[in-house]
Specification:
The protein contains four helices and 23 strands. It is mainly beta and 327 residues long. It folds into two domains: 191 residues, no CATH class; 111 residues, Sandwich (Immunoglobulin-like), CATH 2.60.40. The strands form five sheets. Strands 2, 6, 7, 9, 10, 12 and 13 form a seven-stranded mixed sheet that branches. The longest helix has 19 residues. The two termini are 18 Å apart.
């Protein structure tokens, strides 16, 4: 039996999306708007020039051409890494470059009306499976709330399993994403990249993004990250309080400086549920940091009982993910 969660959606999100859609249409009708918006956008790789539109073609450098959007550009990159058993894992990347002052969104965009990225791999060849990974994000205050995502640039690693490992892989991607400054603007890029069967290297940028992807922890390891959790789902001040600590190589990490170090927490609710972004309250005993999620805006906070939240803990020494059931 499913439980209907009657949470109110943010009016700011609807307004932001409507304004963003208007700007996106205006960019198509008036191409000069999109061109002028690219001033200050730095694109690495001299062999790859921004494409005016359509699909980005493959290059000899293991990357597609840049596809230019509103204050942004996107391309596919390719690489591989050795596995613990001596094998090879194919890792592609969806790289975004942003103009100064613009940001793009994480899979949970925050509460300011943002658009999470979507990845459609229809048309790819010799691909048995692909899995998009998300580097740990940052947070910023916006006019309508909190943006969760990335500024300047980000590469989403994509773990690719070929159907036939000895043959080339052709990736075809329709990538939809949002960018923001004062408002959210939707964007789309169509990308194509053929990856040779013998690719063996990975660019430093893709490798760094892969290292930034939070590690999923369970059991005792999860207990070292989530030190304490309490849900108060009734009364005048319903809230969820979470005490978390940074995590590095399986050990509790307490970076120099203040006791809790540079730690942030992001919480993803189940589909169809809107939760406020956690607010840092302060440091607590044991090197942890306390965060609070205010539930007063929810019509029925008790409906969260039994729901599973996905927690991402970001720290200067390491990033971790874990699942926690509200109770």
């Amino acid at each position: 039996m499913s439980i209907a969660l009657p949470f109110r959606s943010s009016p700011a999100r609807a307004v932001s999306l409507l304004i963003g859609a208007f700007i996106a249409v205006a960019t198509i009708i008036m191409p000069g708007l999109g061109a002028s918006a690219q001033v200050g956008l730095s694109l690495p790789g001299g062999a790859s020039r921004p494409a005016a539109g359509g699909a980005g073609g493959a290059s000899a450098a293991g990357a597609s051409q840049w596809v230019k959007g509103h204050n942004s550009a996107v391309r596919l990159v390719a690489g591989a890494e050795l596995t613990a058993d001596g094998g090879r894992r194919l890792v592609a990347g969806v790289e975004i470059r942003l103009a100064e002052g613009w940001k793009t969104y994480w899979r949970h965009p925050g509460d300011d009306g943002g658009l999470p990225p979507t990845f459609d791999w229809t048309g790819s060849r010799n691909v048995k499976s692909q899995r998009v990974l998300y580097p740990a994000p940052g947070r910023w205050k916006s006019l309508n709330g909190i943006t969760i995502g990335y500024e300047k640039a980000v590469t989403f690693p994509v773990v690719v399993e070929p159907a036939a490992p000895t043959k080339p892989v052709m990736l075809a991607l329709t990538f939809e994403y949002g960018i923001c400054r004062e408002i959210c603007v939707p964007a789309e890029a169509k990308l194509v990249l053929t990856i040779p069967a013998g690719v063996a290297a990975m660019s430093p940028g893709l490798a760094a993004s892969l290292r930034s992807v939070p590690r999923m922890v369970e059991g005792a390891s999860a207990g070292r990250v989530l030190k304490s959790a309490k849900a108060t789902l009734s009364g005048a001040a319903p809230a969820i309080t979470l005490d978390v600590a940074a995590f590095e190589n399986g050990a509790l990490s307490q970076p120099a400086g203040r006791p809790g170090g540079d730690v942030d927490l992001f919480v993803e609710p189940p589909a169809g549920v809107d939760l406020p972004v956690p607010v840092r309250i302060g440091d607590v005993a044991g090197g942890a940091v306390r965060f609070r999620i205010d539930l007063k805006g929810l019509e029925k906070p008790a409906a969260l009982t039994g729901q599973t939240l996905r927690l991402t803990v970001k720290g200067s020494s390491g990033n971790a993910e874990l699942l926690w059931q509200v109770r």
